[in-house]
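Action item from last meeting closed. Structure (299 res):
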């Protein structure tokens, strides 16, 4: 039987990737996500094949089968079938397969990873992400004051939902938050998809009144049609010049107030300082996801 935290959080993660992908192919019980090129980010590369994908998180009576043997060949053939080419000036984005070992028999997980290694894949084992969850109560939604800002450089902070006119300036903030090049076209493309798809993505940001720059951003995936009581925090970041001022806490708190009471909000995290921040907001540790990342070397 699937634990509810596992079924719900994996469903949300997979659906968020599917929504942003250029195309999504389902085969066996995995999914291939073909996304805008972003070689620097683990879950946003040109092709990602993820096992397992959960279609019905509200049905906890099922169990997960083990991935099929010959999985490396499936990944390789899928990559070549789709002729995933990149611009000549860009480094080749390498297809990756994320094997979720959380509920898998350890011996079976070792066998599958060894199959990948024998097929020429480079595999990283033992990747652990903590899963945290917050249930929105009436008390949370009504009694969360904005934190007192600790910097004199911040004046008249405005917290609001982002619209399409903000994408250019917001992409600059996003790049600063996570160390990307501001000229990366994939970043503008990704933000455009999220902002325009406002039925499934809540893009919330903080803007400083004095210089009118975005200083913090939160992106929450909200599948209102398929699972209206679930959401997943996909992005939370603060511009490096404005960190340690409580902006990340404030922008996420304000974003969550846009969701209905009773919603269960999930997120994946591995950094200890981020864990402390989420605990301060009210998130609780509900489980851990163990995975292996297998990357195909393409000559």
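Sequence:
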């Amino acid at each position: 039987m699937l634990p509810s935290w596992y079924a719900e959080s994996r469903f949300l993660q997979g659906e968020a990737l599917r929504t942003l992908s250029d195309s999504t192919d389902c085969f066996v019980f995995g999914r291939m996500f073909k996304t805008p090129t972003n070689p620097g980010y683990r879950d946003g590369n040109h092709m990602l094949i993820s096992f397992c994908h959960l279609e019905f998180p509200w049905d906890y009576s099922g169990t997960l089968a083990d991935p099929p043997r010959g999985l490396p060949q499936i990944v390789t053939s899928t990559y070549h079938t789709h002729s995933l080419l990149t611009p000549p000036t860009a480094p080749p984005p390498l297809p990756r397969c994320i094997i979720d070992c959380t509920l898998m028999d350890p011996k079976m997980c070792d066998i599958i990873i060894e199959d990948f290694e024998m097929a020429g894949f480079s595999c990283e084992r033992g990747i652990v992400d903590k899963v945290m969850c917050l249930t929105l109560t009436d008390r949370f939604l009504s009694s969360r004051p904005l934190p007192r800002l600790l910097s004199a450089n911040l004046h008249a902070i405005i917290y609001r939902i982002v619209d399409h006119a903000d994408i250019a300036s917001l992409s600059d903030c996003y790049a600063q938050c996570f160390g990307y090049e501001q000229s990366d076209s994939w970043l503008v493309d990704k933000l455009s998809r999220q902002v325009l798809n406002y039925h499934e993505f809540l893009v919330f940001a903080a803007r400083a009144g004095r210089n009118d720059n975005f200083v913090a951003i939160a992106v929450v995936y909200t599948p209102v049609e398929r699972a209206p009581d679930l959401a997943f925090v996909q992005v939370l970041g603060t511009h490096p010049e404005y960190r340690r001022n409580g902006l990340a806490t404030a922008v996420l708190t304000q974003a969550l107030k846009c969701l209905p009471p009773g919603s269960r909000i999930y997120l994946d995290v591995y950094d200890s300082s981020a864990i402390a921040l989420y605990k301060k907001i009210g998130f609780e540790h509900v489980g851990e996801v163990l995975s292996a990342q297998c990357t195909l070397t393409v000559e």
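Note appended to the action item: The two ends are 42 Å apart (CA to CA).
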